[in-house]
Amino acid sequence: MPLYQFRCAACGPFDRTFPMATVPDAAGCPTCASAARRQITGPRLAHGATAAMCLLDATKRSASEPAVVTGPRPGVVRNPTPTTANPLHRTLPRP
C-alpha cells in the first residue's frame, strides 16, 4: 500500500497508508484527532532499510568520508620483517 503524508495545522506532518482506490483527502490526526489535509509529495523511492540500500548508502558515504585505518585488525598477527644472521649482509648499504 502507498504511504501518504498528511499535515495537521496544530501538530505537523504525519504518514498513513491507504489503498490507492480509497485514499481520502483528509484524515484524522493521531495526536489531536483534528482533520488533516493530504499533502502532495514526491515519491519516496530511496527510503528503505534493505541490505542493498545500506550497501548503496555506504558506497556513497565512502566517497566523501573514507574510513581511516589506524592499525591492523584485532586478532591479526603480522610477521616481523625477516632478518638475516649472515655477517656479510651487515656490510651492505642500507636503504
UniProtKB/TrEMBL annotation:
InterPro entries: Regulatory_FmdB_Zinc_ribbon
A Pfam cross-reference name: Zn_ribbon_8
Location of region: Disordered: 63-95
Annotated signal sequence range: none
Residue span(s) of domain Putative regulatory protein FmdB zinc ribbon: 1-41
Top-level taxon of the source organism: Bacteria
Identification of the protein by name: Zinc ribbon domain-containing protein
Species this chain originates from: Rhodococcus spelaei
